[in-house]
Amino acid sequence: MTFSNPGLKFSAEPAEQVNDPSGSDFCSYRIEVRDAGRLTRTFTGKVTKTQATRPQVEREIERWCELYPYKLPRDGGGTVEIDLSSIAIA
Length: 90
Description:
2 helices; globular
């Protein structure tokens, strides 16, 4: 598997939901992107409430970001809808 930048590390944590325009069917996660330990950007990822109940949802979001870097917002502060249906963590 080849990544555009294998040095990137992603971390996800639940974000506060303030006036969420996408409705109540989604849960927001703050995602940080680090390159060699240095914070390079942050953005918001949204997953459905059903997927948000998974025990390892944060790790699955991080893995999704590793697999689909072309779907991430180009500039910091953007929002992306994340579908975890293709992600399985052993």
